[in-house]
Write a structure and sequence with these properties.
Layout lengths: L1 H8 L4 E4 L14 H13 L4 E5 L11 H21 L4 E3 L9 H17 L6 E4 L12 H10 L6 E6 H6 L7 H14 L5 E6 L1 E2 L10 E2 L7 H9 L9 E3 L6 H27 L1
Parallel strand pairs: 1-2, 2-3, 3-4, 4-5, 5-6, 6-9
Antiparallel strand pairs: 7-8
Helix pairs in contact: 3-4, 4-5, 8-9
Amino acid sequence: MKAHARGVELDCDAIQIFNQSPRMWKPTSWKEPDIDEFRSLMDGGPIESVVIHAVYLINLATKDREMRKKSLTSLSHALRMGDAIGADGVVVHPGSTLKEPLPASLKRVGQAIKQVLGESESCRLLLENTAGAGGTIGRSLEELYELVDLGGGSKRIGVCLDCCHMLASGFDIRTDAGLGQVMDDFESHLGLDRLHCVHVNDSAVPLGSNRDRHEYLPDGELGEAGLSAFLSEPRFEKLPALLEKIGDDPDKDREQVATARRLRKKGLARRKRRARR
């Protein structure tokens, strides 16, 4: 309920929540009255979408039995909570190879996807692209395509694209044309029906750095041009656009939401002018 209230306070259209502490395995049990109250709040607006982010500890690619058990249990719990509150999806980082061969690691992620979908009802599982540090999986679109296939191709498997991670992993999306080429590839290979939300973060590190370092909008490497391109991409229309560089300063957070809206308006105006030429 606090997350919903905070979203309303910050003038948000969509919110992302953790169903439990993001850096702990212990699940939080939501009681039925709490779930009913949350659903009632969502039905009344003005928040139009809620997305759950799975805990950061999850590694669907691991060979370690205990870690794998904890990862599957945590992700299944998140999906069931997504079912309960009517979430538009559960975002998860696919995991890391931990120096194991990539093909075998991808296969383990695919098996994990099938298992957690089988233990939940309808909530989507959204694979997030990664910045590419170390052996993280999901740094390329090709890896995301393969994971959807290895996971059984269920309609419940989707994608969340993070613009900070895209830049860090080598996608130059700082222009309308550059982002357009990436999305042409995504659309032709995977289809837009797989894309269900985007993360809007500026990057504190440059193109191809393979490091995940978020920065406030628009103070990073994407800047005004890159963020306005991302926020005005026509194929992102009506998707939840989720800011993650949000802290404990309501004034700063409200400013970030307003900045995102300003940058989107700027990008739309630029695209409109170009279309007239």
